[in-house]
Every structure is written in structure tokens, then in C-alpha cells.
Amino acid sequence: MADGQPLDVLMIEDDDDDVLIIGDLLKGAHAGIRLARSANLFDGLKRLGEASFDAVLLDLSLPDSRGPDTFYTVRSQFPRLPVVVLSGLDDEDVAYATVQDGAQDYLVKGKLDGEVLVRSIRYAIERHAMIRELETKNSELAETSERLRTIIDSNADALIIVSRRGVILFANPAAEWIFESGADELVGSVFGTPMVQGRSAEIAVMRKEGRRLIAEMRVAETVWQRDRAYLASLRDVTRRVEAEQALRLYRDHLQDLVTQRTEALSRANEDLGREIEEHKRTETALREAVHRLEEHNRAQADFVSNVSHELKTPLASIGYAVENLRSGVVGPIPERIEPYVTLIQEDTQRLGTTIADILDMSRLEAQTLRLQRVKVHVGRLALRAVLSIQNQATSKHQRTSFLCRHPCPFAILDPKKFERVVLNIVGNAIKYSHERGLIDVRIEPRPGDPERLRLSVTDDGMGIPADCIERVTERYFRVGEHVSGTGLGLALCKEITELHGGVLTVLSPPPNRAQGTAVIVDLPAGLPPCVVVADPDAAARSQVEQQLRAQGYSVIACGKGEQALALTSSEKADTLVIEADLADMAGVELISRLKANRELQHIPVVMLTGSQPAAAVQDILAGLGVPLLRKPWKADRLITAIENGMLELAVG
């Protein structure tokens, strides 16, 4: 009820006259009380449950309930509602009992006036509110006290209350543990340590069996049962104190060690200074020696390079002369001279290979070897290399087999350098294989890794001793003491392979064989070259496309020159194959426009024609390096022309 608002009071009374009297008294007192009425206890309880009232005027003699039980029934169901008993019975004992049990007042009918009644109702409401507030405060106080008790009892620190005379008045469970005595033993005993506020102190507590405990004590003033006292908190710091003592001892020990080590380091520094000076002198001497050695190496490399170049010119002349002799330029060679010519040719080739190896190794050492990479059909390159030294195998009655079963055997290589790799590996296989032996050359995907291409050369020769396998790819290493060669071949193959991002492996014997050697080169596989074919003849276009796809090339075909130029640019073509007479322009015009374009002028071109072009056209094509193939052409000639054009890119 807010201040100034009328009070709602329920009167539970069966006598109509009493209700009228009470109503008149309240009206006459101008009390601002709205009176509601129930004629029996049942109806009164119902209305109390349905509406909010500030107080109840209760008659103890009702049709459905009589005596003090009437009050107890209302109080049990609505304990927070103030009740004023209004009875016709002037009995002090009953009045005292009901007030003691919770009624706010006991008024006798017939002895009332308006002011007394209003005052009683208002006081009843106020007293009841005060009682409820007091109960709430007491409950909160009890909860707070219980929480404090829990905190004190569960505190890890010992807490004791000590009187001004030094007598222990309270001890929590942690104090019982520290002093090894129950609270009943501690309370009333004298605490012999002086209470000093404002600072902590460490005290010794002698426990049972002579054990000593160190406690850190802090003291504060407090009030206990209205008397001034001290609150002391004690914390077990035995381990900390022992650790600090041990730490002090250890620090002292460390200080002694530091002093000793400092003296030792001082002596060592003096020795080290002398050693550094000696090392500086040695380092200077080594630098001078390295400088002299580098100059010597440079001079040696220059000498090797100069000698090699000096040898290449006469060697080339000898080679040309032998070729002319064998080709019959000076007439037929007598049969008795033929073996000597063959020997000269083979030795010339072998010496040329050795000189090339020496020059490349010199460039590798100087880090001046540069690769001219283009897209290369590894299978055809390897086959050409094998065929070029087939006569060496034939002279030993050896058989060679070649198999390319890679669906797209292309890689981005320096063709000249990689051809040397193949020639060296196959040449070694021929050299170290027995008469009538077999040399097997294969191009295939690396097992389990289609992104890499594998070249393997396997022979059934004498093999390599197990203790030499790890060293056969080292420079100048040779197996045995009387083996011909420079010891550069496999080393050069390995280093060139690695420059291409590949790996060279030597196995001896090869898997599932009793003897022989396998040299394996694994390389990153490349995308096939893209060839744009422009020919107005659909049948000719289809034939070119089939021949190129059979070798793994990617082909885009069209019928006009403008289309060919656009596709060459958009598809980044590697080669262009065109008909001499296109539907929209002459082949020569297309080539001229191609060469005038900076982005496309490097692309090789192969021209097809069904008729003999004019001499002027042939001269233009020859000047631009464009091969001309007459229809019908052989597939191998077309593939060779494309490959030669791409190989010239590497040379350029």
C-alpha cells in the first residue's frame, strides 16, 4: 500500500449488525479504509486467495469455524497478512494466546470506537510489516553468519582470536592442524607469542614428536563478544623457509663456482687470444694458398678449354675426311684399308665425345653451362641417339631394343645436352656389355608417378661392383685400374640431368636379374607441343592431325589463314603447319605476317604444297628457314621437320 492510498480490509463476520456497526465506525473516523465482508471462513479464505488485502478483521465465532482454530486456519494459509481478532468474548487468556501466536490485536465488540479501531488496524499493518522485515533481516544475518563460518572453517590459513591477556578465545580447523590440538583444547589456553600489529612475523611451532613447523603470522585488532581482541592468521611456510635457506646455500655455492669459473675463463681467454692470433696467421696463409689454387684452377680450366677447342678443329676435319672417304668421294676404298678407316672414324667420334665432355665439365665447374630448353619428344630424341651409335653395337654383334610406351613422351629439355646424356649412357652399355649382349632402351611413365617420365638403359654386361655403385657418378671415378675413359661420362650425365630437374639412378644388377647394369633417368614430364594446322583440304587436315596425334602432339586444325594466326596467338602454339594456298591468303603472306609479329615471329613453320612453287617462293622459304613438303608426304618427314624447327629454337 502506497502512502495516501486507502486500505483494503476484509472483515470475516457472520453477524450483519456487527458488520454495519464496524462499517459506521470506520466511516465516522474518516480513515480511508475500504471494507469488504465475508460471512463465513470458507468464503473469506477464498476471497483472500483471489484478491489482495492489507489486513483482516476476524470473528472467532463463525458458522463454519469457532474459537482460536479460526485464527490458526487463516494464519497458516496467509502467514504474511496481518490479522486483528474482533470478538464478542472479553477473555484475557484467549486474547493473550492469540496475540502470542501471531494476531496483531484482540478487540472486544462493544468496547470500540472509530479511532481505536482505525489505530488498531493501522498499527497491526505496521507491526506486521516490521515483523516481516525483522524476520528477513534475521534470515539474511543467519545466512551471512553461515557463510562466514564456512569461509573461516575452510580457510587454509589458521585463524585464532586472542584476548588482550593472551588467552585463545577461538580457533578454526586449520589452527587445530597447525597446533595438533582440538579447538576445545586450544580455547582457554594461553598463546605465548606477543601480538604485534602491522607486520608479519615468523614463529616456530613445536609439534608432536619434536617436529618443528614455521608459520607466518599476521595480526589485526578485532572485537570478540564486545571486548577488544586480536585476530591472528597463521600460514604454514615451512617448505618456503626451507627452500629459501637451501636457495641461499645454493647461491653461495654458485658464487664460489662463478668465482672459480671466472678465474678459469680469464686464463682460457688468454689462451684463446693466443690461439686466435695463431689462427689468423693460419687463415691468412690459407687465403693466400686458396687464391693461388683458384688462379691455378682458372689457368688449368683455360688451358683445358683452349686445348679442347684447338683439338676440335683438326678432329672435325679428320671426321669430314673419313666421311668423304666412306661415301666414295675419292673412289672406292680398298678392302684391306676399310678396317683402318672404320677404326679412324670410331676413334675420332670417341675423341670428339671426350672433348665435348671435358668442355661441358669445365663449364659446369665455372657455372657457365646454360640450357636452351624447348619441348622435346624424348622418345624420338633417344631413338636418334641410339641409331647414331648403332654401328658400335653392331661391331660387337650386340642387339639393341627400343620401346617408347609413354602416352605423351614430352619434356622441356636442352636437346643437345640431353642427347649427350643418352649417348653417354648407351655408349657405356655397349662398351661394358659382352659380345652378342642385349642393350634395352625404354621410355615410359615413372611407376606410381605419371607426372614424371623415365628413360632406362639396361644391359646384361659385367655390372658394377657393389662398393663402387655410390661413386660411379663422381667426377673422374673409374671402376678398376685399367679401364679406358676419363671418368667424366656418368658424372656429366648426372649433373646435366639434375640441371633439368631430374634424377639419375644406377642399379647393378637390375631388379630380377643376375648381372648387368640399369641406368635410370627420371625427368619432369611436360605438356605436348601445340601444333596449329591450316589447310583448306579437309582430308589433308585430317591426315596431318592423325599423324601428329599418333606421336602425342596436341593439334588444332582450321582451313583459313586468319583463323590460323588467331589460334596461334590465343592457344600459344609451338609450331604452325600450313598449306601453300589457303582459302583467304597465300601461305607466304601468312608467314610474312607471322614474322612481322614480335610475339609470334619465333614460331617454326612447315609448309605443305601440292605443286611445285615458283623459284622466288622457294628462295623466300629457304631464307626464312621454312621447310617445304610436297604432297603426298611421309609422316616421318613431317614429324622430323617439326622437330627440327623446335630444335633450332634451342640453338637460337
How many structural domains are formed by the residues? Answer: 5
How many helices in DSSP terms? 18
Q: What share of residues is helical? A: 40-55%
The amount of beta strand, in percent, is: 15-25%
Instruction: Give the oligomeric state of the chains in this entry, treating copies of one chain as homo and distinct chains as hetero.
Output: single chain
Radius of gyration over all CA atoms, rounded = 59 Å
Please name the CATH architecture of the largest domain: 2-Layer Sandwich
- The CATH homologous superfamily of the largest domain is called Histidine kinase-like ATPase, C-terminal domain
Average pLDDT metric? 83
**DSSP E strands, number:** 24
In this structure, how is the largest beta sheet organized? 5 strands, parallel
CATH topological fold name of the largest domain: Heat Shock Protein 90
Main β-sheet, spatial strand arrangement: 2-1-3-6-7
What is the CATH C level class of the largest domain, in words? Alpha Beta
Low-pLDDT residue intervals, each spanning 5 or more residues: none
- Classify the secondary structure makeup into a structural class: alpha/beta
- Termini, distance in Å? 109 Å
Shape: elongated
